[in-house]
Amino acid sequence: MNAATRAPAPILDDYPFRLTDNVRFMDLDPNNHVNNAIYSSYFETSRVMLTKDSSYGITPDGLSWVLARLDIHFRAELHWPNVIELGTGIARVGRTSLTFAQVVFSQGKCIASADATTVMIGLDSRQPTAIPQEVIEKMQPWMMRNSRAA
Q1: Mapping DSSP to helix (H, G, I), strand (E, B) and coil, where does residue 104 land?
Q2: DSSP 148
Q3: For 68-114, how does the pLDDT look when each residue is reduced to its tens digit (9 = 90+)?
Q4: Which of 5, 19, 78, 137 could, after both became Cys, cross-link 34 (CB 3.0–4.6 A)?
């Protein structure tokens, strides 16, 4: 039986929301590369910067986003010192949830990619709530460009 064909690596330009960050010495593990658990923090930083900035209008008053699922694909080692580029785009919008496509790049190479599904909840009820149409409209600039690799 033949092995499945490997999907091409993600392209940073397909991710409309971008941040630059530094690899910190404390991010390393005993193998002298960034520990796998740290990547969830990198992805969180990018998602939170997009959703919590009120000028983008993605999180109305009284509502919030909670993480329901995070799937990470580790693609290469990352070392310190280094600079990383974080890319985030909205891949899918559901009734109460949205899925972000996210990447970590360093020196032009995709180091890790992830799909993060978040659910909109009411801050008082703590229950899932439908994403308002005006929020969906404000998400449009942040939708993924082109097709992406998983």
Answers
A1: strand
A2: -
A3: 999 999 999 999 999 999 999 999 999 999 999 999 999 999 999 99
A4: 78
41 dihedral zone (left: phi>0; alpha: psi -120 to 50; beta): alpha
Cα dihedral angle (41, 66, 110, 91), rounded to 10 degrees?
Answer: -170
Tokens (6 digits) for 94? 């559901």
In eight-state DSSP terms, residue 12 is G
Phi-psi region of 120 (alpha: psi -120 to 50; beta: other; left: phi over 0): beta
Q: Are 110 and 9 in contact (CB under 8 A)?
A: yes
Three-class SS state of 68:
strand
Q: Are 88 and 68 in contact (CB under 8 A)?
A: no
Confidence at residue 8, expressed as pLDDT on a 0 to 100 scale: 81
